[in-house]
Design goal:
Layout (H helix, E strand, L loop, with lengths): L2 E8 L11 H5 L4 E5 L7 H14 L2 E6 L16 H22 L3 E6 L1 H9 L1 H14 L5 E4 L3 H9 L3 E6 L23 H14 L1 E3 L5 E3 L4 E4 L6 H14 L3 E2 L5
Parallel strand pairs: 1-2, 1-9, 1-10, 2-3, 3-4, 5-6, 6-9
Antiparallel strand pairs: 7-8
Helix pairs in contact: 2-3, 3-5, 4-5, 5-6, 7-8
EC number: 3.5.2.9
Catalytic activity: 5-oxo-L-proline + ATP + 2 H2O = L-glutamate + ADP + phosphate + H(+)
Function: Catalyzes the cleavage of 5-oxoproline to form L-glutamate coupled to the hydrolysis of ATP to ADP and inorganic phosphate.
Length: 253
Amino acid sequence: MAQIDLNSDLGESFGPWPMGDDAAMLAIVTSANIACGFHAGDPAGILRTLREAAVRGVAVGAHIGYRDLAGFGRRNMAVGYDDLFAETIFQIGALQGLAKAAGTRVSYVKPHGALYNTIAHDAAQASAVIAGVLAVDPALPLMALAGAPVVARARDAGLQVICEAFADRGYLPDGRLVQRGTPGATIHDPALIAARMLRLAREGVIEAIDGQDIRLEAQSICVHGDNPAAVAIARQLREDLVAGGIALRAVTG
């Protein structure tokens, strides 16, 4: 039976400002990328989400990002190697401490937002993040954009890589994501999203924005938790994948 992981970005609320419905998403996904406080999240809120993930048996990943609360980590930043290396270690370590207190553990690392997209193709920043993960624990897998150069870089450095596709994002013919704010960047129709991801899970193929099919190696599918329709999208996606004979399992445990 074909199988795939379903993940979402959680733990992003800050003080009295809620972001997404973590409890509802944790009843649907198999892995949760938990904010580490740099792009979003506060310690108490992160700890609550980790405790809920532990109760649900959902795998936890460190969702590291640029130090950019105001921009939600979605602004490109020219961070030097030493700073990015140390910030990677810092964020993973912070989440590891909270995860231990919550009765769970950090099973993988996934960069967020602009950092995720930058290291997909930028060798310098990718090297700093990869080195930071290796310094903390060489056994921690890196979740990265399927088909991007960072996948080979991380594997060459000795890291296991979880290749990821995005349920609610449009793709360019070269496998990159359509830039946010441009037509076709985000898909909102739950039925269309589910159909695209079912085909990806079965055939390893997704339709690009120009209609052409592109091949992607993907072990995990992401549904963005900050989308107001995220829970409905994730729920239909899970139901359609299971109905289509796809087993949902975390890549890590």
